[in-house]
Specification:
Layout lengths: L5 H10 L13 H18 L7 E5 L3 E6 L3 E6 L8 E7 L2 E13 L5 E13 H54 L25 H47 L5 H4 L4 E8 L7 E9 L2 E9 L3 H20 L4 H14 L7 E9 L4 E7 L5 E3 L4 E3 L4 E2 L12 E5 L5 E5 L15 H11 L5 H16 L8 E8 L2
Parallel strand pairs: 11-14
Antiparallel strand pairs: 1-2, 1-6, 2-3, 4-5, 5-6, 7-17, 8-9, 9-10, 10-11, 11-15, 12-13, 12-16, 16-17
Helix pairs in contact: 1-2, 3-4, 6-7, 8-9
Length: 479
């Protein structure tokens, strides 16, 4: 019979004593085999096994494992001194992980033991690695999906919480700037232009909305105030222009009775530093043979000085018509100005009464600039006697003095705005430059002389702002 015939194997197993034959008489190896088969069948009902192995261990620490599918494999035990062991074996078929517990029976060869597996575990590591790779792959996919979902949800949340409110703020701010609320492009901002958004955020975006809204409200209030101020400024400018026209009309012009007179030639000008000024000049006939000449400078500038100037001008003119010397006239006018001078303003006045037939000019100086006289072809200062300004002390006394004019002589009077004009280097124009400008045009007519002085002052001051009113009066005596 063939060696692999079951009957032959069974007879061979019967011929071998069993593991417990010394205890159980007549026990054979077949009995042990049948018991093992029953145990395997019982264990398979609980823990199914795929393969059965037969192992033969040698004393050198190696044992031969018989696998029905793979054939014989010689594997080294990890620790020959320990009966129970485990190991990992790798070959062309893959990884094999095992653990075992065996019962050994002596054979005729002392170097060989028969080992009967009592517990044996075989794990296919390829399958484990496949499961591991599958787990990692699915874990990566799951993590990527969760990450993408988190990013998407986060973006939606951020868009709802931050981006959309910021876009609303941007549109509201742009609407306020370009005024899309129906207002004209050039109209003023109103409270209807202030954005009113449904932004319940109580975070930094809500704070930003409140700040922008507060800023827009402030802009509306500022534009309203600016509109009122602009309107008020325009009203004041209109009134000042009208006041300047009234003031200019109050100053005498070259009327026919003056231009037609053959005894003299006269020209005067007043250039205010502001819309209206405090300087003034005046000339008028007291009778057929006497001409009154007045030039004055009120302290301060603007409307107060202009009002005080009109008062002083009218009182000087009225008092001069009543008669008297220049000193007497200034004394009386000074008392009038001091009575109710709550503003504490004053005026410098030079007043002259010119006897055209005799060529004698009687004058009085109330704190004003010294006149300039051209006699003999050269302009020179006339060092007259000064008294106190008008409007300071009621008991001030004034003094008369005389100037004799010959045929062709020119008298030039002015306010302090001419010599005190400031240049770019903060230097004053000065009396000497004034004399030089007059002497450079010594033979010119009165009107040409005023023009020459104005050009000289303008060239000196350059772009500097005019500090004070420029008022001049020039008369040439023909005899």
């Amino acid at each position: 019979m063939a060696a692999n015939d079951p009957a032959v194997i069974e007879d061979w197993l019967k011929s071998k004593p069993g593991f417990y034959s010394d205890v159980i008489p007549g026990e054979t190896l077949l009995d042990d085999y049948q018991i093992i088969c029953q145990d395997i069948e019982t264990s398979q009902s609980v823990f199914p096994q795929t393969h059965l192995y037969v192992a033969e261990e040698r004393k050198d620490g190696f044992f031969t494992l018989a696998d029905p599918e793979k054939g014989l494999m010689q594997i080294g035990a990890e620790n020959p001194d320990v009966e129970d062991g485990s190991a990992v074996h790798a070959d062309g078929s893959g990884w094999l992980c095992y653990t075992f517990e065996f019962i050994s029976l002596p054979t005729e060869d002392e170097n060989i033991f028969y080992a009967v597996a009592y517990a044996f575990a075989d794990i296919n590591m390829n399958h484990v690695m496949e499961q591991r790779h599958w787990f990692l792959y699915n874990s990566i996919i799951l993590i990527a999906a969760l990450t993408a979902a988190a990013i998407f949800i986060g973006m939606r949340v951020v868009r709802r919480i931050a981006v959309m409110p910021l876009c609303q703020l941007r549109r509201g701010a742009l609407d306020f700037v370009i005024k899309k609320n129906g207002n004209d492009a050039g109209s003023l901002y109103t409270m209807d232009d202030v954005m009113n958004l449904n932004t319940p955020n109580r975070d930094e975006i809500g704070d930003l909305y409140q700040e922008i809204r507060t800023m827009q409200t402030s802009i509306v209030q500022h534009t309203e105030e600016l509109a009122k101020a602009t309107a008020e400024k325009e009203r004041i400018r209109t009134e000042m222009d009208l006041a300047a026209q009234i003031q200019a009309s109050a100053l005498p012009q070259a009327a026919p009775e003056f231009t037609g007179c053959g005894a003299f030639e006269l020209s005067a000008s007043m250039t205010p530093a502001k819309e209206v000024g405090g300087d003034f000049y005046d000339f008028f006939f007291l009778d057929d043979g006497r001409l009154a000449l007045v030039i004055a400078d009120v302290s301060g500038k603007g409307v107060p000085a202009a009002l005080f100037m009109m008062t002083a001008k009218d009182r000087i003119s009225s008092r001069a018509q009543a008669g008297g010397t220049p000193a007497e006239i200034l004394a009386d006018v000074n008392k009038q100005l001091c009575r109710n001078n709550k503003a504490k303003m004053f005026v410098t006045v030079w007043l002259g009464i010119f006897d055209l037939a005799a060529g004698i000019l009687t004058a009085s100086n109330g704190g004003h600039e010294e006149p300039i006289l051209r006699s003999g072809g050269v302009f020179e200062l006339v060092h007259d006697r000064h008294s106190l300004v008008l409007g300071a002390f009621a008991r001030t006394e004034y003094t008369d003095y005389e100037i004799r004019l010959k045929h062709g002589d020119i008298l030039f009077v002015y306010t302090d705005g001419v010599p005190e004009a400031n240049g770019a280097s903060h230097q004053r124009y000065g009396a000497q430059r004034l004399l030089d400008a007059l002497n450079a045009s010594a033979k010119a007519e009165p009107e040409a002389l005023l023009s020459a002085v104005q050009k000289s002052v303008a060239a000196f001051t350059g772009d500097a702002e005019q500090f004070d009113d420029l008022t001049m009066l020039c008369i040439r005596y023909k005899g």
